[in-house]
Design a protein that fits this description.
Structural class: alpha+beta
Order of helices and strands: HHEEHEEEEHHHHHEH
Number of helices: 9
Helix content: 55-70%
Largest sheet: 6 strands, antiparallel, barrel
Distance between the termini: 91 Å
Radius of gyration: 34 Å
Strand order of the largest sheet: 1-2-4-3-6-5
Shape: elongated
Number of strands: 7
Strand content: 5-15%
Length: 335
């Protein structure tokens, strides 16, 4: 088997570059240079993502990249200079997910400086920063609660609409039958027998109001019991309880977030693209900030907030503080 001389010459010329990008990665860790496996930069959602690699098989790449623990965005890119679209994988290593979602548009610049239109087609959601990782469970819980509340509200609205439609249908039917039987109906001897259905309806409305009054009274009594218990605890006890509950909820999330962030491995993302990486490539804080940067607006592009808006914010904060003071002093007796 003979090897062409041109390949040997290219190998001799680029052997050092190959070692610097495959063995020790000095070009990858140098902020002024770019490693040979970095296919370009993705500009999306006000940030620049430097770690982008070409993807040939999306499902296969996602299966391997899922082990990396890195928030990975897959985009379909199109360019007027290329007939067929291609796929890239971009690693978001700093900040938050922000408004990155499926269907989000961006711009991708390859190593030759050619611009491609990018559109997000798939996302591997992973913790990006400590702040996002700590509060991610609470956001999921909030989304779940809001979804359940919306479903409950929709079902109640549909039940109410069906009830109203049924009531109007029965009312029309009753009115029609009453009009047909009116000439045949004799005057009742007892006035109570000729009472109109409106009296029964008014009784039903009165019963409804009475039931609502009982419900409000029950809620008020429950709130009074809670207020009495809080008075016995005192201000310091309430603050201590709130702090303990917050720590009980945040500390496990913080520990899990630190473990996940320290376990992020860029090697899995590169292996998914066909690179044979033996060791792990861990992400530290400095490298994460270099690979994903958010754009900074120039000073001339930032307009100061109007005075009216600042005044409304100040009034709102003052009203909330006064309401909290009034509730704590009048109902709970804390101040």
């Amino acid at each position: 088997m003979t090897v062409p001389w041109s390949r040997l010459l290219y190998f001799a010329r680029d052997f050092l570059t190959f070692c610097n990008n495959f063995v020790s990665f000095p070009h990858f860790y140098d902020p002024e240079r770019r490693a040979i496996f970095q296919s370009g930069e993705l500009l999306i959602d006000g940030r620049r993502i430097r770690l982008c690699v070409w993807v040939e098989n999306l499902d296969q790449h996602a299966t391997i990249a899922q082990r990396s623990g890195i928030y990975t965005v897959y985009c379909e890119v199109r360019s007027a200079k290329h007939a067929t679209p291609r796929l890239i994988a971009a690693a978001v290593t700093a900040g938050t997910a922000g408004r990155i979602e499926i269907g989000k548009n961006g711009i991708f610049y390859d190593r030759a400086g050619v611009d491609w239109e990018a559109r997000v087609v798939r996302i591997l959601a992973q913790p990006i920063s400590l702040h996002e990782a700590v509060f991610a469970p609470f956001r999921k819980l909030g989304r779940m609660l809001s979804t359940q509340i919306e479903k409950l509200a929709d079902s109640r609205e549909q039940d109410m609409q069906r009830s109203v439609n049924t009531s109007f249908t029965e009312l029309d039917r009753s009115a029609g039958s009453a009009a047909a039987e009116a000439p045949l109906r004799a005057r009742p001897a007892n006035p109570a027998e000729g009472a109109s259905p409106a009296g029964n309806r008014s009784f039903g409305v009165g019963g409804l109001l009475a039931g609502g009054g009982f419900a409000i009274a029950a809620i008020g009594s429950s709130f009074a019991i809670v207020a009495e218990r809080l008075k016995l605890v005192g201000t310091s006890g309430i603050l201590y309880t709130v702090v303990v509950i917050l720590l009980f909820l945040l500390i496990p999330s913080l520990i899990v977030a630190v473990i996940k962030l320290r376990g992020r491995d860029l090697g899995d993302v590169l292996e998914a693209s066909g690179w044979a990486i033996s060791g792990a490539i861990r992400l530290n804080f400095g490298l994460s900030r270099r690979l994903t940067r958010r754009g900074v607006y120039p000073a001339s592009a930032i307009l100061p907030a109007p005075p009216g808006r600042r005044r409304r914010i100040l009034y709102g904060i003052t009203a909330v503080l006064l309401a909290a003071y009034a509730i704590g002093r009048g109902l709970l007796g804390l101040f």
